[in-house]
């Protein structure tokens, strides 16, 4: 991935404006990715401050991811309808407002509500920023520009857990949200000063009925999972939510079949690689996306790690993840998508299952190697799945397919954490003891989530064994830039 700004043009003034624009979008992306990971190491401290069990704190993560998944389908239409600069400034201000409300929250319910507000802003930062770059930069420089913007997306998860743990120790958990305020204010002022106003785009009628059906279905299914533990819902309520969610998604599908301009056309699913890629993304992430939530919790509540120490232990995951980016494409080119994804999905599941054997007396070097191996294979999994999903889409379907992929990714992240919380609560009740303060509950949860990931290998087995990987390098660049 390129690490420098795009090649300058002959107009110094315009080039300066383009560079400032890239930095502006990159900072917005950094804020969004940082906040998606910074709270994980602070959850036990939040629980203690709010008088809650750490077992219920997954709602703080789920609310943010789910809100982002809900708003992504509408982001492009909102930018065209209200203007990209206006929407981008609004996204930053919403993000800052949500951050302040999070810091002021004195109960779990208020904190979750504030995370929803924060997620509304965060959901618009990357899609609208990407759209601004697309409409401002010449087409031949777009990929290089987006590659530069994507760098903070890798840096955010690298420093997020460590920074969150450090802030909890030197100040309080409130500061993991308050640090967004000065950055957001400067970003909003810079947006008003430097972001151009592209010519108004033709805006079609928004498919509000389809959007509501899709959003309700996602929310209902996620709440059903989270209700098994975090919300304290009874089994009957969970079942009703799940039925309503599935019915709403089925209704959206029927709605999209008869509408000429749906949010996501059913014709997209005629592309085999996209169909398998989306299903694989959903189910494999459902298992693996819980790890950034479970690992810091495990280290703090069962092994006595401080928040800063737990955050430092996530560094091997992020470093190994970044180091694997360049190795994925040659492997796919040589062995093809099916073989790489089937084998690597099994490896992701096995590395997750290895955490079922953790113990307080485990040597530190073993734990570090364990975390690094998970980060490496998980990074390869994400890159391979994403390139597979988009590789066969034509220009007319690329934008819609990319938005659908982004929505599925965020939905899977939220549902994965919710599912892990529900499984952890069930095992805690089974093993007894003080809630999540039992190592056995964590071990069983890691094993269960690993099995979910391993099962998703069967989805990738449906790929054509002759599927060429000739476009892997180009598609990897497209996905990493987007």
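-> sequence recovered:
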């Amino acid at each position: 991935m390129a690490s420098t700004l795009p090649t300058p043009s002959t107009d110094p003034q315009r080039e300066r404006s383009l560079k400032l624009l890239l930095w502006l979008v990159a900072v917005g992306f950094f804020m969004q990715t940082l906040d998606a990971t910074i709270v994980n190491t602070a959850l036990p401290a939040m629980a203690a401050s709010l008088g809650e069990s750490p077992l219920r704190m997954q709602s703080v993560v789920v609310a943010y991811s789910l809100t982002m998944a809900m708003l992504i389908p509408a982001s492009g239409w909102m930018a065209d309808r209200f203007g990209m600069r206006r929407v981008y400034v609004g996204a930053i201000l919403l993000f800052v407002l949500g951050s302040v409300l999070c810091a002021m929250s004195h109960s779990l319910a208020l904190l979750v509500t504030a995370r929803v507000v924060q997620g509304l802003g965060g959901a618009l930062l990357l899609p609208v920023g990407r759209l601004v770059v697309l409409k401002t930069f010449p087409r031949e420089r777009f990929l290089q520009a987006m590659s530069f913007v994507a760098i903070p997306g890798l840096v955010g998860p690298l420093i997020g857990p460590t920074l969150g743990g450090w802030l909890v120790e030197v100040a309080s958990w409130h500061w993991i949200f308050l640090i967004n305020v000065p950055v957001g204010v400067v970003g909003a002022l810079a947006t008003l000063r430097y972001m151009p106003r592209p010519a108004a785009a033709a805006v079609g009628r928004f498919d509000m009925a389809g959007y509501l059906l899709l959003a309700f279905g996602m929310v209902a299914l996620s709440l059903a999972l989270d209700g098994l533990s975090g919300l304290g819902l009874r089994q009957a309520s969970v079942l009703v939510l799940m039925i309503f969610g599935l019915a709403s998604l089925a209704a959206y599908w029927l709605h999209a079949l008869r509408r000429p301009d749906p949010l996501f056309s059913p014709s997209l699913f005629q592309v085999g690689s996209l169909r398998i890629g989306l299903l694989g993304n959903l189910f494999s992430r459902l298992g693996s996306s819980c790890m950034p939530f479970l690992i810091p919790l495990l280290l703090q509540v069962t092994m006595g790690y401080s928040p800063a120490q737990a955050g430092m232990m996530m560094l091997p995951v992020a470093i190994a993840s970044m180091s694997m980016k360049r190795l994925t494409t040659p492997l796919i080119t040589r062995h093809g998508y099916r073989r790489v994804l089937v084998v690597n999905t099994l490896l992701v599941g096995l590395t997750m299952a290895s955490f079922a054997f953790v113990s307080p007396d485990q040597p530190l070097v073993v734990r570090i190697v364990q975390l690094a191996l998970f980060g490496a294979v998980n990074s390869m999994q994400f890159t391979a799945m994403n390139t597979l999903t988009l590789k066969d889409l034509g220009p007319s379907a690329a934008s819609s397919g990319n938005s659908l992929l982004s929505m599925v990714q965020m939905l899977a992240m939220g549902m994965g954490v919710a599912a892990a919380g529900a499984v952890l609560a069930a095992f805690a009740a089974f093993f007894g003891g003080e809630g999540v303060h039992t190592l056995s509950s964590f071990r069983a949860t890691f094993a269960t989530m690993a099995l979910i990931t391993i099962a998703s290998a069967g989805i990738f087995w449906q790929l054509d064994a002759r599927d060429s990987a000739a476009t892997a390098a180009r598609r990897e660049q497209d996905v990493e830039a987007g």
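The two ends are 12 Å apart (CA to CA).
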